[in-house]
Every structure is written in structure tokens, then in C-alpha cells.
Amino acid sequence: MDKNRVYVFDTTLRDGEQVPGCQLTTVEKIIVAKKLEALGVDIIEAGFPISSPGDFQSVVEISKAVTEPVICALTRANTTDIDAAAEALRFAKRKRIHTGIGSSDIHIKHKFNSTREQIVERAFAAVKYARKFTDDVEFFAEDAGRADNAFLAQMIEAVIAAGATTVNIPDTNGYCLPDQYGAKIKYLTEHVSNIDKAIISVHCHNDLGLATANTIAGVMNGARQVECTINGIGERAGNTSLEEVAMILKTHHGLGYHTNINSKGIYEISTLVEKMMRMPVQANKAIVGRNAFAHSSGIHQDGVLKHRENYEILNPEDVGINSNAIILTARSGRHALKHHLERLGYKMDKINLDEVYQRFLEMADNKKEINDADLLQLMGDGDSKN
Ligand code: KIV
Ligand code: ZN
């Protein structure tokens, strides 16, 4: 087994799709699932079958349409949910049941009105029951971010003994700091006696803007599965974004971790999910935002044109973005203007750059951003090409 392989578990169609306004039809979900397959995702969480007939049917149809990744369905820790998941997954070539229950004292007391002992018994029983349908059972310890580490270790040891092959340690409320979350994962590797029989999974929410940082801290402390969504969509402030984790591990390849993600497909699936789920990506979003590679200050544009690595740690082509999409503004310099005019076919030895640059500044003062159509207008029909 490759110790540094990080498995990517995508939950865009389950945790992401729970967001009000983001609901997809079954046909749309199949389109997204096929793109996730092409992207190289290892596990697709296709839905929560007991939650609605539509979700159930989507899991059935995705199981038929997508064959490469493992198809996963979510359940609570009860036999009715697990039966529905097993039924919905019946056509999947490789199937996973993802069952679980709360692990923090807050959830145990105020959500389940129960005790730690009873909760561990329910967790154990749910995993044992799910194993009747598949050898691939993942257990989630909801709100593990706020759970007592010693109790969490006890619970995780019990579910692995019951047959869980992946153990998910969610920071359900996005509460942890990276140091705390990393230490929690490390604690489990050191205090769960049978931990070598399961893969530790990290599932982080972004309430404090730390989902990606916590996910990476988890990996660096022993987790080998990351749970993410495209564009980081998800309830409230969202989940860990797949593209950020994939590109962090790729950029910092010296750490030794690797995934199966074909990064060149990232931008395409990002725009697909953005449109289908009606959830606009913020312009300055890392990796896939409109401005993620757009250097607008003159100093930066000049530096990038001289040598890309001056101001870019990522190559836009690596995520499937056309690198020519640099925005020109009133702060752009002559070098950037010349570069774009040449790109559009203008022969600069026949052009007075100083004169064109003055006209460009006047135009840029009136418009926030100058695109190719504006440049063509600036140059007019005259003397410029050939
Ligand atoms: O955030 C969470 O705890 C979850 C679980 C259902 C895995 O989404
Ligand atoms: Zn979640």
C-alpha cells in the first residue's frame, strides 16, 4: 500500500447539495458525477437515500452511470436508513455505506438525549449492520471537532472492531484551529489500538475560514482521505474545497502526498457546478475565482510577463485556465499592453506605443477592466495589423 496516497472523497452531491437553492435534478447530478469521475475522484458521495425519493433515485442512477469511483450513500445510525442506502446502491460496481452518529457531549446530551455508553453501542451496531451489505463501511463521528479526544478514541476503536474500514472525523461546525485538529488526528493514530485497520478521513467545515487548513493539518498528521466539495460549496460557509486541497498537495509535492486528481479538469467542473447549482464563485476565490490568476497592478503584470514565477506559484494551465486571461486596468503598464496587442496580432514595430498607451489610459480610466474587444476598439480599423 502507498503510504502517501491521499484518497479524495467528493460530497458535492450530498453535503453540497443540501444548501438551499443548490438542488439538482437526477439528470444534472449524473452530469456532475461523470465529471467527478473524469477528474479522478476516488469516492463520490451521491446522496442520503432515506431523506427523499429524489435523493434515493439519484443514488440509484449514479450507481448505474458511474463505474470508476466508489459510490457512497449516507445514513444515520439506524437500520431503516441503512436498508435504504443498501437498496439505493444495489447497482453500484463498488459501494460504500457511510453511517454515523454524534460524538461530542453537546450532541450526545442535547441531540440524542443519551449517554456516551449508549452512543458507542448504537455506533457499533450500525456499523455491524451496514457490513451485512458491503465490506466498505465508513463511520462518521459527528461533531468530532468538539468531542473529547479520549472518548472519541474509544468510539473509533469500537467501530473499527465492528468492521468500519474508514473513520471520518468531522469538524461539523468548523470550530477547530489547524493545530487542534491536526493534534486530534495524531491522538487517534496513537490511542486507537486497531487504527491500522482503517483509513482516517477528514471532513471540515469552513465557518471560521479554516476548512482547507484543517484538512491539510489532518493529512499531515495521518489522515489519508479528504472529504471536499467543488468550489467549497456546502451548508453555511461551506466545506473544504476540493480544488484547494488538490492544488496544495500538488504545489507542495515535496511533502510527498499525492492524489489521483487530474488538475486540468478543475476549472471546467468548477464552472459547471457554479452554473448548475446557482452558486456564484467569489472573484477572489483561490484556484478558481475570476481573479485567481489575474494580475492587475502594473508591477505584477510586468513581473509576470518577464518571468511567470515572479508572481505565480501556480500555473493557470494546470487547472485548465487559459493564461491569456490577464485583465488590463488603468494600473497596467506599457509592457502588459504591448503583450496583449501582440497576442491580438498587432505588429508593435509599426505602432507608437507611447501614443497608444496614453489613449489606453484614458479608456481604462472610464472602464474598470479592459478586455480584448476594448483593445480592438482602441486600435480602430487602421494601420495596426500585418
Ligand atoms: O459535517 C458533518 O458532520 C457531516 C456528516 C454527516 C459526515 O456532513
Ligand atoms: Zn458535513
UniProtKB/TrEMBL annotation:
Mn(2+) binds at residues 15, 203, 205, 239. It catalyses: 3-methyl-2-oxobutanoate + acetyl-CoA + H2O = (2S)-2-isopropylmalate + CoA + H(+). Pathway: Amino-acid biosynthesis; L-leucine biosynthesis; L-leucine from 3-methyl-2-oxobutanoate: step 1/4. Keywords: Acyltransferase, Amino-acid biosynthesis, Branched-chain amino acid biosynthesis, Cytoplasm, Leucine biosynthesis, Manganese, Metal-binding, Transferase. Its EC number is 2.3.3.13. It is an enzyme of class 2 (transferase). One of its GO terms (molecular function) is 2-isopropylmalate synthase activity. Its cofactor is Mn(2+). One of its GO terms (biological process) is L-leucine biosynthetic process. Residues 6-267 form the Pyruvate carboxyltransferase domain. One of its GO terms (cellular component) is cytoplasm. Catalyzes the condensation of the acetyl group of acetyl-CoA with 3-methyl-2-oxobutanoate (2-ketoisovalerate) to form 3-carboxy-3-hydroxy-4-methylpentanoate (2-isopropylmalate). Belongs to the alpha-IPM synthase/homocitrate synthase family. LeuA type 1 subfamily. Homodimer. This is 2-isopropylmalate synthase. The lineage of its organism: Bacteria, Pseudomonadati, Bacteroidota, Chitinophagia, Chitinophagales.
